[in-house]
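Here is one chain, start to finish.
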Amino acid sequence: MSSRAFELLNRLFQWNETRVHELNYLFWECTTRCNLHCLHCGSDCTASGGEPDMPAEDFLRAFDTIPREKRGKRFTVVMTGGEPLLRPDIADVGRQLRRRGVGWSIVSNGYFYDKAMHEKLMAGGMGALTISLDGLKDEHDWMRGHDGSYQRTINAITIAAKERRINFDVVTCVSQRNLPQLQEMHDLLAGLGVRQWRLFTIIPIGRACDHAELHLNGEQLVELMEFIKAKRELAGQASTLNNRHSMNVTFSCEGFLGPYEMKVRQNPFFCHAGINIASVLIDGTICACPNIDRKVFSQGNIYKDNLWEVWQNGFKLFRDRSWTRRGKCASCPVANRCHGGGMHNWHGVCAESIDCHYRKVVNKERQGV
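Its structure:
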């Protein structure tokens, strides 16, 4: 298939996904309590939390507004925070979701994830798990604000990587400090049996606004892209040789990458926020991804609105992205493919995208980097 035909098919796919807007991924910010103090935390979570934990029955009541016939096999509830494992009822909530016919997963820092916790969550029907690793020992502990967190995370990854009944991946937020460590991290994770490794950059929101060393410049972003590209090429060769133990390394869905698009990820960039993804935040706010500006882009609140009705009739700024064509985006040659990038890059509809990956990688490519 020619690149032109592929692009047209992708546009048709995105148009149809937006038109249908099937909800199949629901985040639940079940707590803002966290045992760590991560420098890049977009939610600015603390040990005590800014809000009390949402009662499970409140979330389930909101979830039950989604008609059963609309909860397809792909539907997943993702429990996030804060640190979800600080809640003693996580497995019980997961069990109740399973009874409703949907899957559930957890995003965790791994600190409390030991064998007993693993068995408890598996008994509750957990189908997927994401654990964060943000560098080798010193860098991870620095990023997480807690000495000893690295070893606890490695222990958790070791346990989860052996479990074949769940979809498990490790995510890494790449900063200027851990960028030089990616090869060592790759070898470590592959040696532990990890099959999926997703790499992110750090968007300047929450605490990350105060730490310039967390953010990649254009040259560093290109270095990250080249690293992922090389790993994916090697994995492709290993697949050809029937090597079932190669690790799939991908870049996140955070922005359009121009010349690197299909070289660092499986599918072309498409921000699913408000298209297939919604979230119930700690105070009941209905939004898309939890990292999106919750003041400007909130769509309602489960304590006064019907979640399903909001999904059906709201999220207009997510489904019609024409408003993003302003500022530097107004004359962008790839605006019809980028659509303003990831929604978490926007702080209000009158601001321009705060971190354009496309501009960074194209400028460095022109300079011969």
